Known about the structure:
Elements: H1 9-32, H2 40-67, H3 74-99, H4 104-113, H5 115-132, H6 136-142, H7 146-150, H8 153-168, H9 173-197
Bound molecules: protoporphyrin IX containing FE (HEM).
Amino acid sequence: MQHKATLPPWCLTGLVMGACSLPLVLLATQLARGQLGPDPAERLMQDTGEWALRGLALVLLASPLARAGWRGVFRYRRILGVTVFLYVSVHLLLFAQVYVGWSGALLIEELKERPYVLVGFSAWLSLLPLALTSTDKARRRLGRHWRPLHRLIYPATLLAWLHLFWLARSDVGEAVVYGLIFAALLGWRLRRYRQRAR
Length: 198
Ligand code: HEM
């Protein structure tokens, strides 16, 4: 009899966690070595934002992959979701440090004057309850309310995309690509929801 060589689940979990933290570790190393170009703060803002967007797309991809037979991916969705929150929070902390110098008054001014900052901040706020309730204990405590609460991932995705689109100014290529990816992933869900309702 032939045995398929498979890694134990804890090993895969470790690999997924390692892969999720790798971009952040690389960015920190490049920062320490002065390899982030002439404007390291801008580069860090862009890269943490980019990785958050990629992570969001991967979180949304988990359900279609599971439907296609890859049910195991569900096991790693939570790690990915928490990673997205981590990257967006680093993005927000950089903003607080570099752009507004931890001044509440300046933050309010930025939120008023730059709609894309307000939209990004709203995306972070929508992800906050998801991160806070990502543990098994919170899931048990929330019971049937957990799932509807975690649908906040949809407005968070739309707000994150709007943030990117608003920032794009003249070059909207990247925003269009992410727009198509998110539209396909959210469209898939909408179709499933309609099928179930019928
Ligand atoms: C889910 C939430 C968020 C995502 C996915 C995200 C994503 C991004 C991305 C990809 C960029 C780079 C765009 C580019 O120039 O190519 C960016 C830039 C920026 N983001 Fe966010 N962001 C989020 C939340 C926030 C929050 C909470 C703030 C601050 C309150 C913020 C403030 C900014 C600013 C100021 C820039 C411009 C950086 C620069 O080019 O100097 N973002 N964001």
